[in-house]
Amino acid sequence: MGMALLRQGAGDLILAVATADATRGPGASSQVLTVQLHKPSKDARTGIVLTGGRGGDGQPPIVKELKPGGIAAASALAVGMTLLEVNGQPVLGHKMGTQLIKEAEGVLHVKARRAPSHLEHPAAPSPLRAAQTASLQYNIAATLATTLPRTLPPTPPLTTVPALTTRDPLTTTFQHRGEPLLVFRGHAVPFAVYEREDSIKIVISTFNLQSEVSHGEGPLCCTVILSLDETKRGHSSFFQCALRDDRFPEMYAAEPPLSCRVDIVKAAYISHNVELHETIITNTRVKIILAKARNA
To answer: Which residues form the PDZ domain (predicted)?
Structure first.
């Protein structure tokens, strides 16, 4: 447990208390924190600025800024954390998170998850997961060598991507028409994946890209497996989205990339062909649109 003190008048007032969630197994206590804030009135400023979670899909928002002088500035909350709960209520989107914080009064319990780059002791992958990762890494690397256009600049070997070699890969399930859409996540984690009959849209937050680059976790690479057919787990679409800033060949920058190139890597015997259709870049989003066609 940690405490943060702000001097107010002649005495010290405890405004924030942080406790780690130790219920998720060995090494997980550093991932989720419950922060207790003292908000004397509804009008009191917490200083928490949120981003993301605006797509209407119930994704929790991310802490974008902690304004100086706000109540949360003295707490264990940090920029880049995902806001999970406020006073026991799950935060399902940006609007809900902002409203729960604004209307709270008195003791405010905030549960948040640190970003992967903030973990102090990443859990070592299990032998089975390590073997699966090595197999996937080999397949993608082999396909890269034979399918990418010759005009593209050399792609760094996938063995240099820390997320694929030093951490247990994160796996999440997005629901689509009642069926799971599995996503294997590496760098530049997508916060939303939408599947339509003829296309797939992957949405990545430029704030997440900025956070990863500022922590020196390049190259910016998102390795994704989309299992488009629940009955054919072995027939998934493998591809790699390599996000690079053309202004910085070394792929480390202090700002989000202004340009983006997506390299699609297809494995043999997949249930769908996917080809890059369009890349849309805004101040807050990188949207990757993939055209989808079932194999003959």
So the answer is: 34-116
